[in-house]
């Protein structure tokens, strides 16, 4: 993801670059280049497309003796280099041509200095956390990467979290062996061309106010964020739980809260965490348990036993979940609506949901205005692949 800037004149001619500019196909396979020929791709901006950038590709035969690019070595280089995108070390700028074409849905730069400025600006304003999932060769002089970036907008008082996942297509100049282009495609939008109003709206809608308590919560990695939900990989965690009455209900809370407040076999007081889960295990969402997550440094064998027979300790093995986030008071009707829509969306996208769901409530309802409440509905998935 990159920050907006004024558009350059689209009619300005660009030099020939060796690059593949196209959205990566998730089903594409490795295509090694022929040892007899190599391809040079000319990039030009179509001045007739005034509202977006357009790419014209033409393949030109070139003598194999003119290019000795080791694409496998560059794949390994990106695995090592890209994790430093926003840390103090930074990326190795010597791996890029001075003329680097960068595009994402709301930003464009045409030079290495502009490319590096954009990275520095993001680092200052958003404090990005960048996770690289994989790097693959997807063309003779083209490498595609998949990533997740989580950013905190430091200029707003409530410091909203912005999440972007997607792919980057990196073009290689066969004459220099350096990267000459970088084009981002976000999972959350359909129109990834620059300038994308859909992309700008995707940024804007993530700026809404949520109040998330400064408490420990289960650890997870965001693998993909679509327009409708996130796919997360949860690490294992432990809960103290008891029977509840309904997904949006609070029956049983006093019993599980009593456990962490010292009503246990050793009278140990355990720090409060977030969120409070209510979980329905059946298709009708009628059999419900209420759960409080225990601190991550606890081991289930070392925890004190509950005093109440109806209260249990259980280790949740974690796994892959589809999650939808929403604010407001989580009434039973609203939670059922969110669960139904989430299940419909993940089935439409070819994923396999498990039975039941969880409602995660992060806030004290007596102290938090409804519009600031952070709530989530989670559905565990049978399987998920980022390939």
Structural descriptors:
alpha+beta, 387 residues, single chain, 17 strands, disordered N terminus, six-stranded mixed beta sheet, nine-stranded antiparallel beta sheet
Write a brief caption for the model:
The chain is of the alpha+beta class and 387 residues long.
Compile the SSE list and pairings:
Elements lengths: L37 E4 L17 E4 L8 H11 L14 E9 L2 E3 L2 H15 L2 E11 L2 E11 L8 E13 L4 E9 L10 H8 L15 E6 L4 E5 L2 E7 L9 H8 L15 E5 L7 E6 L18 E5 L2 E8 L5 H17 L8 E5 L13 E6 L7
Parallel strand pairs: 3-8
Antiparallel strand pairs: 1-2, 3-4, 5-6, 6-7, 7-8, 9-10, 10-15, 11-13, 11-14, 12-13, 12-16, 15-17, 16-17
> What form results from the Cα inertia axes?
elongated
Helix amount: 10-25%
In oligomeric terms, what are we looking at?
single chain
Number of DSSP E strands = 17
- In DSSP terms (H or I, runs of 4 or more residues), the helix count works out at 5
Family: Belongs to the HEBP family.
Pfam family, one: DUF2358
Protein name: SOUL heme-binding protein
InterPro entries: DUF2358 (IPR018790), NTF2-like_dom_sf (IPR032710), Reg_factor_effector_dom_sf (IPR011256), SOUL_heme-bd (IPR006917)
Description:
This protein is an alpha+beta fold and 387 residues long. 15% of the residues lie in helices and 30% in strands. The strands form 3 sheets. Strands 9-10-15-17-16-12-13-11-14 form a 9-stranded antiparallel beta sheet, covered by helices on one side. Strand 5 and strand 6 (142-152) form a beta hairpin. The protein is elongated. The two termini are 21 Å apart. 32% of the residues are buried. Mean pLDDT is 87; it is low at 1-21 and 25-64.
């Amino acid at each position: 993801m990159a920050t907006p800037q004024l558009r350059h004149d689209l009619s300005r001619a660009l030099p020939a670059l060796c690059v593949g500019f196209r959205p990566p196909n998730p089903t594409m396979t490795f295509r090694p280049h022929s040892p007899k020929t190599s391809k040079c791709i000319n990039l030009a901006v179509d001045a007739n497309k005034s509202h977006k950038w357009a790419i014209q590709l033409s393949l030109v035969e070139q003598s194999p003796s003119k290019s000795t690019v080791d694409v496998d070595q560059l794949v390994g280089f990106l695995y090592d280099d890209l994790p430093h995108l926003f840390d103090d070390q930074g990326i190795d700028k010597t791996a890029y041509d001075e003329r680097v074409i960068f595009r994402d849905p709301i930003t464009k730069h045409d030079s290495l200095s502009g490319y590096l400025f954009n990275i520095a600006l993001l680092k200052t304003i958003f404090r990005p956390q960048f996770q690289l999932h994989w790097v693959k060769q997807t063309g003779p002089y083209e490498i595609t990467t998949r990533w997740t970036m989580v950013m905190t907008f430091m200029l707003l008082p409530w410091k909203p979290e912005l999440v972007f996942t997607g792919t980057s297509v990196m073009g290689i100049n066969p004459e220099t062996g350096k990267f000459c282009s970088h084009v981002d495609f976000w999972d959350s939008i359909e129109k990834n061309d620059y300038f994308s109003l859909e992309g700008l709206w995707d940024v804007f809608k993530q700026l809404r106010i949520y109040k998330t308590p400064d408490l420990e919560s289960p650890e997870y990695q965001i693998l993909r964020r679509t327009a409708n939900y996130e796919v997360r990989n949860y690490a294992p965690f432990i809960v103290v739980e008891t029977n509840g009455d309904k997904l949006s209900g609070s029956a049983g809370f006093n019993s599980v809260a009593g456990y962490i407040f010292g009503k246990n076999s050793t009278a140990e007081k355990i720090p409060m965490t977030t969120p409070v889960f209510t979980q329905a295990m059946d298709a009708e969402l009628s059999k419900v348990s209420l759960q409080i997550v225990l601190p991550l440094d606890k081991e289930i064998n070392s925890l004190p036993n509950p005093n109440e027979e109806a209260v249990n300790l259980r280790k949740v093995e974690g796994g892959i979940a589809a999650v939808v986030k929403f604010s407001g008071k989580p009434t039973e009707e609203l939670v059922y609506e969110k669960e139904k829509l989430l299940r419909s969306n993940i089935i439409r996208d070819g994923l396999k949901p498990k039975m039941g769901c969880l409602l995660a409530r992060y806030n004290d309802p007596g102290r938090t205005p409804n519009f600031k409440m952070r709530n989530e509905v989670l559905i565990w998935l049978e399987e998920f692949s980022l390939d």
